[in-house]
Amino acid sequence: MAKQYTSSFIDKLTYQSNRSVMEVCGSSNVTLREFGCEQSLLSRPDGSASFIQGDTSVLAAVYGPAEVKVSKEIYDRATLEVLIQPKVGLPSVRERSQEQCLRESCEASLLLSLHPRSSLTLILQLLSSFLNAACMALMDAGLPMSCLFCGVTCAIDADGCIITDPTAAQEKKSRALMTFAIDSAEHRVMTSSTKGSFSVHELQQCIAVSQKASEKIFQFYRDSVRRRYSKTL
Amino acid sequence: MFSSLKKKVGEVLLPGDEFSYDTDDTISLTEHVKPEKVVCGPGLRRSGDRLLVCKSGVLRHKQPNMFWIDSQQRRYVPAKGETVIGIIAAKAGDVFKVDFGGSEQASLSYLAFEGATKRNRPNVQVGDLVFAQFTIANKDMEPELVCIDSSGRANGMGVFGGGGLLFKVSLGLVRRLLSPNSEIHSDLDQMFPCELVVGMNGRVWVKSSSVQQTLIIANLLQSCDTMTGPQRQELFRRVQTGAL
Fold first, then answer.
1. What's the CATH number for A11-232?
2. What percent of chain B is predicted at pLDDT more than 90?
3. Rounded Cα gap, residues B88 and B84, in angstroms
4. Do A109 and B15 touch (CB under 8 A)?
5. Do B103 and A144 touch (CB under 8 A)?
């Protein structure tokens, strides 16, 4: 009898601790590493941006709408090509899958039908959090978009705690890793890329946390664009 | 919608921002009410009864009801009636192919020059610069240029003479240079008299009394992009006195 009691007590405890995690997330206590951004820093491309988040930094460049190869021409919309260059060495299978993920996210927010028979090329260099840099670069190039998007990564560690925007070391220790692309219009999930095992409840918690975090990033986008246009107001 | 748009004039907007009809708008039944019309320029799109922003930039307004987004971009997208500086890329039968910095080359008929007839072909070589106007520019068709206006006069358009320097600036700067009472233009005019051709595609052609002067003007214009008014005036003054 006593044993049963304790087990249920433990259940209650874990349940409570879960609750408290969710409440912490709910009270806008989402921690992101420091992030910064610079737009149109490269002279040759039509749009470029660098996005720095904690220790990771991404450089993105956009060319387009430009001339397209006949073999890649699509008659009613623009062809979007995404190229990811790793810091050292040649791009491998991992980069290819990231490219596809990113291309599909960008296609969802860009209004490609406004530039048929042309090509857009997006080139990125360095590590993770590509989504934010890509969005900033597309915005800098002045391409028509229906909404903005941002990427948020969540990790679930061995104890079941959700860590937003984990560092490389935290990622390694985590049980599951999820990356979401979230749109600015309705804060809905555009893309999700996950690794590891987790429950449905945890997934929903992570989405809620990411949506909370995305608000911060969108506010940052707005501030940085405002700063950029401050000289021509 | 009109009032909410008007409130945002001069502010920076991002793609995804939207305007919709206010729900508390009341319609008077006794008075004659004019339906409010809004003309959307670049960067604004209509979707149902909402207005969506699709480019980042500053919202601008022109009386009575025109709104558009003023954005800084580098790649040119042709629009009908705009004048551009193009480079003749090829001669193909009775048309020239012109590179104007867009996604495809525009065609320019050899008859679309002042005084040109089937007998009397204009003297245009590959590599020449032309100042021309778009007569066809839409997303589904090949853009078409002409070097005459509707009455058949050159009206400032045509092939460039020798000398001068061509360089690129951002499209935002070009629009600022071409605006009716542009401060940059008046500042430049006072300090460095020169011949200046500005294409809407971001290409600028300068010719002045000496090569040195031309280079100075080119460098000044390229640096204007990232400066505020007072900074620019200060720089111009320093250059003129020979401090730089």
1. 3.30.230.70
2. 36
3. 12
4. yes
5. no
